[in-house]
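Please, structure for the following, as tokens.
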Amino acid sequence: MSRILPSLNALKAFEAAARHESFTLAAAELNVTHAAISRHIRELEVWLGTKLFVRTGRGVELTEKGGSYVADITRGFDVLAAATESVSSRRRRRRQQLVVSVEPSFAALWLVPRLGRFTAANPEIELVVDSSHRLVDFARDEADIGIRYGRGVWPNVASDVLTRTNMTPVCSPALLRARRIREPSDLEPGLLLQEETRRYWYEWLKAAGVCDRISPEGPTLGLHLTIPAAEAGQGFALADEVIAGDALVGGRLVKPFAISVAEYGYYFVRDAARKDSKAMAAFHAWLKAEIDQTVDAVRKLAAPARRPAVSKKKR
């Protein structure tokens, strides 16, 4: 059957201009000039014998006939696009969304600066980072996976260790020089930057043998704030090779003591009853490789030589 149709380029120009209500934006979308859009619209109006746009001081507006016409034209282009995609070997794959639950400190200090590498290597995965202190409940929440810090035992989840950590104080090199701190007993309580979970300082001070003499009295901040505060020379933050890794490698922070608490680690967690998807497996592999790279870089730094490392026995 013979079809009497105007120019396809003119129809494309009209549909884009109608959607944007702008010849300029339509030209940018179709990568042509403003004059080309105007010419196509003018030719189409002549071909149809009717006005499609009314020029106003703010731009252009569709006429009543133009509005009715573009609705059908848009549906027609949608049908053409769907038909083309269904048979084309170049059709885009639908991106798979992956929701990751993670603590704000880990997200801000380590994960977010590296996410570009994951998205570049996995363009088919749409990553959504859910940053919260609350432990995700996979039975009720939307998260697919989580990254947790602890001993690796949580109910109703499967957990794979990403790395074991050594938790120890860190500070700026300038603060260490200014205060002449050589032993844990030299620490000033007011310089110990606290977190909401204060047991970590107690565990380290106990491992260092000074918990009966020193108690943290510095400001209470979230971990995502204690690291920047330590970099600014405001005190000592308690951290591990991952959270403080970039600052340690960059020389913005140093570890003044060889004493560490080695009970904890970072874990990749997901619903124990759920099978890993390709997106979950890809993120798991990428995450493990990136964390290994960070830890290796930190451990290659010159280790402090004041006292041997002390690790608490696992409870």
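Residues 226 and 237 are 6 Å apart (CA to CA). Residues 304-315 have pLDDT under 50 and may be disordered.
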